[in-house]
Design brief:
It is built from three helices and six strands. By secondary structure, it is an alpha/beta fold. The longest helix is centred in the middle third of the chain and has 15 residues.
Length: 156
């Protein structure tokens, strides 16, 4: 989800709620403690120089159980970060504490914001000798297909 998309959603909802991909809700008393711009310059294993820019939201739980972040307040925090940091309309990455700090993509299901698991990937598979994925076929499907190579089938 891009920054422009979350602003549109926030203008049309009454409560801000986040849910992990496994269905576990982020406690209602969370805080957005940071909004920032993360710039990552790197070289992949194939030697290609790359750079990425993401808007980073950090969620944090405190012991103030009466705290609730409203859409207008989050919009105000976003506007301040855009103005102060010059943040553009980039994809959002969310940091949230579990056993360690997890990084998530952001989605929306019509009611809640979804913290979607991120996965590592090779960006230069053609350079690292990773074989192309072969299609998987169930043997049971092969046996059920008609074959001309049966006794009396006329294929030989």
């Amino acid at each position: 989800m891009k920054l422009s998309e979350i602003k549109t959603v926030l203008n049309n909802i009454e409560n801000v709620a986040f849910v992990l991909e496994n269905g576990t809700p982020v406690p209602e008393h969370f805080h957005v403690t940071e909004i920032g711009l993360i710039i990552k310059n790197f070289i992949d294993c194939g030697g290609t120089v790359r750079n990425e820019k993401v808007v980073n939201f950090q969620l944090w739980n405190a012991n103030d159980f009466d705290h609730r972040l409203k859409p207008k307040k989050l919009l105000d925090i976003i506007a301040l970060s855009e103005k102060t940091l010059g943040i553009g309309d980039f994809e959002i990455e969310v940091e949230y504490q579990s056993e360690t700090i997890g990084k998530y993509n952001l989605g929306f299901n019509g009611k809640d914001f979804l913290l979607l698991n991120k996965k590592t990937a090779c960006l230069a598979e053609d350079q690292c000798g990773i074989p192309a994925t072969k299609p998987r076929i169930k043997l049971s499907e092969i046996q059920s297909q008609n074959s001309c190579c049966t006794p009396g089938g006329g294929c030989c």
